[in-house]
Design a protein that fits this description.
Length: 278
């Protein structure tokens, strides 16, 4: 079966591109709005973003450009068994890049290099462009369950980190969020391990209610918190309020990407949260 591969450099988008071959099954791409065409239609499958029909809007063109700003290339890939498809990006590959980028920086909560943060921000934007659930609060069953934080722009730095002992003898463990649809509650559990006190482990648990206010946004209200065991409460002493202030989720959260593996949200304080389904 005839097929072709086309690559268009982004910085040449002002120039129209053409197929290297004009035959059955060949795909033609023009960078001008409304002139992206294919011999046949295409579908979205297996996490891949595929252009459908014969035209694309200005906003659609922006979302197509965005995923390949780093490589500078828009890739159009071969015909399938029965239909020609233009594969613009693969969400799964972006997720893998994002996981690799956040792995060495301990979720970013203690800071990271400017270049690392910029790279992660770009990957987050790329993934958001392929959001398969544009109205997540209308399908909350996709959001329910346990989620583990893998990256955030929320930071514990300087004097705050020192006061909480997070430079020396207190280690910050997993941050896990449980979404319970029946009770309309979100429970954030932050694990701690204390060095030098045997096997002392503890947890800060913050319970909050949530209310849907738009197809993508929920309002969150703090309800209560617990810090166990008592030894950990004593250890943090007068800094418990500081701990709660850092992890208190009250405000609103905008859900910008949700699939069966990963979730991205932005809160009213400007923080970004990337979580993986457990």
């Amino acid at each position: 079966m005839a097929s072709c591969l086309i690559q268009v450099r982004v910085h040449h988008l002002a120039q129209p591109s053409a197929c290297s071959r004009n035959g059955k099954g060949c795909v033609c791409v023009s960078p001008r709005v409304g002139t992206l065409a294919s011999k046949t239609s295409a579908n979205r499958t297996n996490g891949q973003r595929i252009v459908k029909n014969d035209t694309i809007s200005e906003s659609g063109l922006k979302s197509l450009r965005n995923p390949f700003r780093r490589s500078g290339t828009v890739r159009a890939l071969q015909t399938g068994r029965s239909a020609a498809s233009i594969v613009v990006a693969d969400a799964n590959s972006v997720k893998e890049e994002l996981r690799s980028a956040v792995a060495p920086i301990d979720r970013g909560i203690f800071g990271c290099q400017k270049a690392e943060r910029a790279q992660i921000a770009e990957l987050v934007q790329e993934l958001e462009a392929f959001n398969p659930l544009p109205a997540p609060t209308e399908s909350l069953e996709q959001v329910a369950g346990d989620w583990r934080l893998i990256y955030t722009t929320l930071q514990i730095l300087g004097n705050k980190r020192t006061k909480l002992g997070l430079r020396t003898f207190v280690n910050l463990g997993d941050f896990v969020q449980r979404i319970d649809l029946e009770s309309k509650q979100a429970v954030n559990n932050v694990a701690f391990n204390v060095v030098g006190l045997g096997s002392l482990e503890g947890m800060l648990s913050i319970k909050a209610s949530f209310e849907v206010v738009s197809p993508t946004r929920v309002d969150i209200k703090y309800q209560e918190s617990t810090l166990v065991p008592d030894k950990l409460q004593t250890l943090f002493n007068k800094n418990v309020d500081l701990l709660l202030a850092i992890f208190n989720p009250e405000g609103w959260l905008e859900l910008t990407y949700v699939d069966e593996e990963m979730r991205i949200g932005h809160d009213d304080k400007g923080n970004v949260f990337v979580l993986e389904k457990m």
